[in-house]
Amino acid sequence: xxxxxxxxxxxxRVLALHxxxxxxxxxxxxxxxxxxxxxxxxxxxxxxxxxxxxxxxxIVLWVETCTDLDD
Length: 71
Known about the structure:
alpha+beta; 1 helix; 20% helix; elongated
């Protein structure tokens, strides 16, 4: 659902990073705008993603935080 609320000018950049990060397994961070469901205004967020692996070193989960930068 977040993709529907992603600012149109940020979509290409954000969508290009996710497959690249999954391939490399590198943690990353990215700032983008999301639409506020209450007001319809866009707000800036900082997303940080970190992979978690199992004993064999395979990524089994990505943990992501999104911090509202407008507050």
